[in-house]
């Protein structure tokens, strides 16, 4: 019986040993495959990380370049704005100077216009006065000429009356004396008085005209 048991266990033990060897080999094979897959996966992860790092570096460099370009553009725009502002300030200053100059010119023109207006009024007044003087002068010359003519006539009348007046006075005096042999009467005295009054009136008028002519002579010089 012991021999039978040995015969039965021996094949079983051999089988167990063979099975253990196969399982160990299988597990070893499985472990080797897992390690290869892990290594490959790790390589892929490293490659992906390197790729991401490179992309991040490129993005950072690109961002830095764009930031630098943007800063340069901003600086350029600031310079242009500053230049434009300075140019605008210069133009504004020039315009302000022109405005000030125009205002001063306007003030001067206003003062000049006022002076001219005043002078125009003066000239108009002087012109009216001169016209009045001219008109008066013409009137004075006309009056002077008329008075000279009238004075000539009066003097002529006085001269013409003086002869007969003297004769009439003589006759009147003879009548008053009462010793004359000539035919004289009161009528001679009346006639003398009338003629004498006429001569006196003419002489008075002559004196007045002469005085007026002296005044006109002074006014028309």
From TrEMBL:
Question: Keywords assigned by UniProt?
Answer: Coiled coil
Does Coiled coil count among this protein's keywords?
yes
Coiled coil stretches, renumbered: 38-112
Q: What is this protein called?
A: Chromosome segregation ATPase
